[in-house]
Specification:
By secondary structure, the protein is mostly helical. It has one domain. Helix content is about 75%, strand content about 0%. Helix 2 crosses helix 4, helix 5 runs parallel beside helix 8 and helix 5 packs antiparallel against helix 12. The N terminus and C terminus are likely disordered.
Length: about 300
């Protein structure tokens, strides 16, 4: 099987959409850290509000919400539900830098899957730059361990979120032809609520109605992580190679740690800043390589027929 090709008219917008998505996710991670609610509770309210808003938008755009959306998005929903439960809990325990950096190791997992199941190929030059970016990520992790905000338990939860997040990316790619990006986004968001609400009860987290200040944070998290982040990335993943979209997530810790340093006062050393600059350089080289005519696209895959 070969991967769907992104023609010249779609590649550029797809790359821009991916960049916007990961920047929004980074800012959303910092917002979650600042909300005075436990991780699972934030997940329930954030995605609950997003679902209600998204369904209204679908109706206004003439898109009928169908129950089958939940069924069709099951795999992606289970993956995203687990990711939110683990990541939101991780970011409450450990520093934002580590939580987001561990998640940015996703390209290693997704790259293997993309090559095996989607027929995507990675040129040696791009693979080398990806390695440079990952080395930069490891550098920031090493420099941040031992800081007051660091937690080993939080890092372990972030590893679990990494695996779940990779599954969500793959499920998003597979949704093409079966449902629209908006339908997939809404369907997976419903699964997040269905998974996180009972988990919050089991772990004794308070699901009481948030106060006004927390609602402001939840609203900002919905706008950044849900409306901007997930919608833009789901839209982009059907226009760019899966591994490119995955590699873009390396930008999340760079943006997140900078915002956390400015607004939350988290530690950020010169060594961390240097390693993050290396990540940005590698990402720039990868994106430039994708936009180059030398990056010949793979043969297009026939569009899947409706079931």
């Amino acid at each position: 099987m070969t991967a769907p090709a992104a023609d010249g008219s779609e590649l550029g917008p797809g790359l821009v959409g991916a960049a916007i998505a990961v920047s929004a996710w980074a800012a959303g991670s910092v917002v979650v850290k600042a909300i005075d609610l436990e991780g699972l509770v934030v997940g329930v309210y954030r995605f609950g509000v997003f679902v209600l808003g998204a369904v209204v938008v679908m109706q206004l755009r003439g898109q009928r919400f169908r129950v089958g959306i939940v069924r069709d998005s099951t795999l992606g929903g289970l993956a995203l539900g687990a990711d939110i439960a683990l990541f939101f809990s991780a970011v409450k325990l450990t520093n934002v830098v580590n939580a987001t950096l561990i998640g940015s190791l996703q390209p290693i997992i997704v790259g293997v899957v993309a090559a095996r199941f989607f027929g995507e190929s990675i040129r040696r030059r791009d693979a080398a730059w990806s390695l440079v970016a990952l080395l930069g990520v490891f550098g920031v992790i090493l420099a941040s361990n031992g800081t007051p905000e660091w937690s080993a338990a939080g890092d372990l939860l972030a590893v679990g979120a990494l695996l779940s997040w990779s599954g969500y990316f793959i499920a998003s790619k597979q949704s093409k032809g079966r449902m629209t990006p908006m339908e997939f986004t809404v369907g997976t968001a419903i699964w997040v609520v269905l998974i996180n609400a009972p988990l919050a009860v089991v772990f004794g987290q308070d699901l009481s109605w948030p106060n006004a200040e927390d609602w402001v944070g939840i609203a900002a998290s919905v706008l950044l992580g849900g409306v901007v982040g997930h919608v833009c990335m789901n839209w982009s993943l059907v226009r760019i190679p899966l591994w490119v979209g995955s590699t873009f997530t390396l930008l999340i810790p760079v943006v997140a740690s900078t915002i956390a340093w400015i607004f939350l006062g988290e530690s950020l050393s010169w060594g961390q800043a240097a390693c993050m600059s290396l990540v940005l350089l590698a990402l720039f080289a990868i994106v430039r390589g994708q936009a180059s005519p030398a990056a010949a696209p793979a043969a297009p895959e026939p569009e899947p027929q409706p079931a």
